[in-house]
Amino acid sequence: MAQPVNPPGACAGYGAGAPPPPPVAPNPLRTPGSDLELGAWRGENVNVGQVLEALADLRRGEQRSATRTCVVNLVVRAGDDDQAGRACAALHRLGGRHPGRTVVVVGPRGGGAEGPSSIDAEVRLHGTEAEGHAVWSEDVRLRVRGPLLGHLDSIVEPLTLPDLPVVAWFVGRPPDPSDALLLAADAVIVDAKTEEPGGEKSIPAVVTLGRRNVVIDLSWIRLRPWRELMGGLFDGPILRPFLDGVTRAEVRGKPGPRLLLAGWLSSRLGLSRSQLQLVDSRHTSMRLTAESDGATASFVVDRKEGDRTVFARAEVEGGATQEDRLSLAEDSLSWSLAHALTHLRHDRVHSQAVHAALGLGE
Amino acid sequence: MTADNPLLEGLEVERRAPPCILVVFGASGDLTSRKLGPALEALASNRQLPLAFSVVGVARTEMSDDDFRCRMLEVVKKPSAAWERLVAGFRYVSGDYTCPETFDRLKRVLGEVDEERGTAGNRVYYLATVPEVFAGVASALGEHGLSQPESEDTFIRLVVEKPFGRDLKSSQELDQTLHESFREDQLYRIDHYLGKETVQNVLALRFANSIFEPIWNRRYVDHVQITVAESLGVGHRGGFYETAGALRDIVQNHVLQVLGLTLMEPPATVDAKGIRDEKVKALRAIDILRPDEVATDVVRAQYEPGWAEGEMARGYREEEGVAPDSRTETYVAMKVRVDNWRWAGVPFYVRTGKCLPKRITEVAMQFHTVPHLPFASGAAEGLEPNALVLRIQPDEGITLRFGAKVPGQAFEVRTVSMDFSYGAAFLEETPDAYERLLLDAMVGDPTLFIRADEVEQAWVVVEPLLAAWAEDEAPLATYPAGTWGPREADRLLERDGRRWRSP
């Protein structure tokens, strides 16, 4: 049964007001052309074969000349409609998105497998323009019920395009290592900063995942401005010597980001647990105290309440000061997702940071 | 720099310049405002310039530091906040390049900026001036003790814009002067074509794929066509163009660089030495034309009035700054032979010109026809030989042309194209060529810059053409603006039983 589907709803509430003065962290994706829904199909209690047939029919029926240039299969694993909606909205805000096929699987995670297995499906064919070429991409949304939720690899594998990497994005908390979907994934996108119950265990979960999968952590990407600014403060011959004399570090923030940054500082600078102070706070900040040639200096990267700007300041006692700042992207989820999809590879520095974070014993 | 700073490790996906001062000679000129300024603004916005960075502009135009800063802010319509903050620290030195006082002042200002910004004595000089002053500026830098770093930890580099001389002799003289003050490894000769993503992608296509290299030779390739076409005329650059012409302006550098990347053998490593060694070897394999071969294998021409892009375009000799009896060529087509195992017997037809129907740069490799077509007579009528086309600009991509069966009961074969477009596959911003090359110069990666022996060999290739044309008094061939060149160029290929592609 094929029937029209409403276009995806736009997400409200983003960035009114004047643009902030500091530079916005660059988005790796260029501004795309307008996105156009070329066709849609919906079916209840269907099988994978019917979904594949619907995809083929939509393509065949579309008379416009278009190129299908795909670079990735993205599988979004969402626990409920709310998570799926947020994930889809973020993907659509990427605009032209990474061309490819997106499969969104909605269904309870880690339970709720009672009753018979079934799939409801929605398929959408999108057209967008890139460099004067019409480009197609496809979204498949599956609501899965019953024991099938424990065998998602069996429905995702047939739906992926051949010879392209499969990226599984687990919205919310990181997956259990036994999650069957991991078998179908070449890379896994997670978020160490999750608000879900059990979120405090996200760092150990990321470490476990990293033993078998390429893990890309959205939280780590979002912390990039903090890391860039702190690293940048030590550029140049005046302040560089202090980097070898860091005596103390204070990291504030919510558990996930706080641990990630503390692990990063610890692994990069060889700081011991006693040199690190971790403080719970709404916003993320770092302060390093360092010595060189008898002089003491402080290096602070901080985000002010209600401001989407991160400030950095280095101050040598009675001497030079250096300042820098960076505006955070208005839409941090889309921004971090764009980064994640652009750099699908193992990040050694992240891996060392999460391992170090584990040892901090918070 | 990131290797020295453990906190920046892992963030070098977007490369970052080390602390340094970029000294731009010709800071009030067109290149600075059109290319260098916007490229620096983009680097600043992408956070690829450190806090310890500044630009010192040098030019004859009288200007204060603030005037220069205002001018640099205006290089883009909407300057980013990062650019505004960076520009606030820029300095300007006005003065004649022949006056020692100019360089005394420059030395003082550089010392002040080092003190204020922590730029550590690192310098990248950029010659964005007219070529006549290249040698003088380089010598003056040497004489004022500004050409060599003070310690092993600091660097001084000199970026030289093309043209690198007007011929072999003047190029060698320029090199000799540059080498009196700078070592070869300090010299970064820039040809912005090499900064284009798709030019670099010729290397990726050839050496990262196993299916193309085995057929990249005389056994499979019938001939290669390289087209560097511009749709515009000389515009206001008539005065300059009169002294250059298409051979010096495009063939000696852009065309031969693209040709070098197409011809070269696989390098052991894709680094500065590996790539440049192989390019020089490839250029040395190009057959140097005898005077009689220049007459038969090279066509030069000038555009005449004609309809181009829907408008009536004036002829070259009617352009501003162009002599009414000018003999400067605006179009060159030539047949290049390559004397090595890989390419012996495969002609490379290159053409470049102004006021052609469209702006396009491509390398088209046409393969041999099959030895035998096993189809019924007429089934493959009009079937073109296979071709692999690397589109460098503006619609970057790759096209593979092959034969496919026409659907239906009959067995009919027709030519079809499989098209790959970069823009459709990668939705990432690609850096502008100047952005890439400026950062390379600051980082100290000379891979995409041209070494002295490459420049020299390129002049050796075009020198016989310059010499023959200097003696030749026959009327120049002409072509109407908005067409693909003169009839003589068509005959160049027809003689070999071939024809130019319609790109």
Widest beta sheet: strand line-up of chain A: 1-4-5-3-2-6-7-8
- Using only CA atoms, what is the Rg of chain B? 25 Å
Taken as a percent bin, the fraction of beta residues of chain B is 15-25%
Strand order of the largest sheet of chain B: 16-15-14-13-7-12-11-8-17
Helix content of chain B: 25-40%
Note the overall shape of chain B: globular
Globally, the shape of chain A reads elongated
Regarding quaternary structure, how should these chains be classified? heterodimer
Largest interface by Cβ-Cβ < 8 Å: A-B, 49 and 40 residues
- List unreliable stretches of 5+ residues of chain A: 1-33
Count of discrete alpha- or pi-helical segments spanning 4 or more residues of chain A = 9
Mean pLDDT of chain B, to the nearest integer, reads 91
Task: Report the strand count of chain A.
Answer: 14
Radius of gyration of chain A: 23 Å
Helical fraction of chain A equals 25-40%
Structural classification of chain A? alpha/beta
Key structural traits:
A: 362 residues; alpha/beta; eight-stranded mixed beta sheet; 14 strands; 27% helix; elongated; B: 503 residues; six-stranded parallel beta sheet; 17 strands; globular
What does this protein structure show overall?
The complex is a heterodimer of chains A (362) and B (503). Chain A has helices at residues 48-61, 81-93, 152-159, 202-210, 218-222, 224-233, 255-269, 332-342, 348-358; strands at residues 35-43, 72-78, 100-106, 118-130, 133-145, 166-170, 187-190, 214-217, 246-253, 276-280, 285-292, 295-303, 309-316, 321-327. Chain A has 9 helices and 14 strands. In chain A, helix 7 (255-269) crosses helix 9 (348-358). Chain A is α/β, with parallel strands linked by helices and 362 residues long. In chain A, the strands form 2 sheets. Chain A has an 8-stranded mixed beta sheet with strand order 1-4-5-3-2-6-7-8, with helices on both faces. In chain A, strands 10-9-11-12-13-14 form a 6-stranded mixed beta sheet, covered by helices on one side. In chain A, 27% of the residues lie in helices and 30% in strands. In chain A, strand 2 (72-78), helix 2 and strand 3 (100-106) form a beta-alpha-beta unit. The longest helix of chain A is centred in the C-terminal third of the chain and has 15 residues, at 255-269. Chain B is an alpha/beta fold. Helices cover 35% and strands 20% of the residues of chain B. Chain B is built from 14 helices and 17 strands. Chain B has helices at residues 30-45, 65-73, 81-87, 100-117, 134-143, 168-181, 197-207, 238-263, 272-284, 291-297, 422-425, 433-443, 452-471, 487-494, and strands at residues 20-25, 53-59, 91-94, 123-127, 156-161, 187-190, 221-229, 298-304, 306-308, 311-313, 331-336, 348-353, 360-367, 387-393, 397-405, 413-421, 477-480. In chain B, the strands form 3 sheets. Chain B has a 9-stranded mixed beta sheet, with helices on both faces. In chain B, strands 3-2-1-4-5-6 form a 6-stranded parallel beta sheet, with helices on both faces. Chain B has a two-stranded antiparallel ribbon with strand order 9-10. In chain B, helix 8 (238-263) crosses helix 13 (452-471). The two termini of chain B are 44 Å apart. The A-B interface holds A 20-23, 25-26, 28-30, 32, 67, 69, 71, 96-99, 130-133, 135, 224, 227-228, 230-240, 243, 268-269, 322, 324, 326-327, 342-343, 347-350 and B 1, 4-11, 13-14, 18-19, 44-47, 50-52, 80-82, 117-120, 395-396, 419-429.
